[in-house]
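Allow me, if you will, to draw on your knowledge of protein folds for a short while. Thank you for your consideration; the sequence and its tokens are set out here:
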Amino acid sequence: MAHLLRFASALLTASVFAADLPSPALIVLNKSDATLAIVDPATGKTTGLIPAGESPHEVVVSADGKTAFVTNYGSRTPGSSLSVIDLVAQKERRFDVSPMARPHGIAISNGKIWFTAEGSKLIGRYDPATHKLDAVLGTGQNGTHMVELSKDGNEIYTANIASGSISIFSNPPAWNQTVVPVGKGPEGFDLTADGGQLWAGNSQDGSVSVIDLKTKKVIATIDVGTKRSNRLKLTLDGKLALISDLSGNELVVLDTASRKVTKRLAIGKTPEGILMDPNGTRAFIALAGENAIAILDLKTLTVSGRLATGGGPDGMAWVK
């Protein structure tokens, strides 16, 4: 009887979530549930819920919007895999990256997937076309956490939490590394639209470091008074930097021109991931402590809505 009940439950879940992929669609990783949620931002409804690896942290989506790539960080046991998820068929397959440990940050460039292995001081590159790992770079830095690439793919940037540094790799395929010391515990960061600067939120000293990417030097350090900065994202117009304060339960709004904090919002419990709406009018903030996503109106800087997506939401992406 128990087996029949589980089977019936599985069929019901499949029927509930069997739907066309919304356009646009909000992709949310639920760390506690080990799932990827497909959310229709127009209705707030979850139209798909797909298994991922243990404690999935960050996600990117292919240019055609059909495939999501997820880093499975692991919980007590370090993770060592990527989830490759067909968003249309709502199916996952797993890519083993061991002995690389704790895959976390992820970025897509020229169709290939770059990811950090925080537990191994490494960056890896996965080729979806061949389903193989085709590049590995060592950072020599502790806690290599987040990763981004320049628009042309010729520079790679990582935040190295425990070493208090940002790595800049340039000149492919040699990939020469420049290590830039910043504040304590750099974690979330973003690039300005023109690619000229990198803004990093330092999780352990309440500051933001601004790096000139031409000179590869810190040109400003801003005290924003956070207890533990988790993510930093620039609005599409570049006028504001949004910082999630995981321990302070706040969203800090920083004016990029004056480099001053203009607002602090009691956004909710344990704010983590931040994602900008492609039209530039809203920001989505993952509240891991409330199993919800807060929607921020960027014109009024007020919360205009909330979405329930699953347990411990964090990393997000768009299908446009």
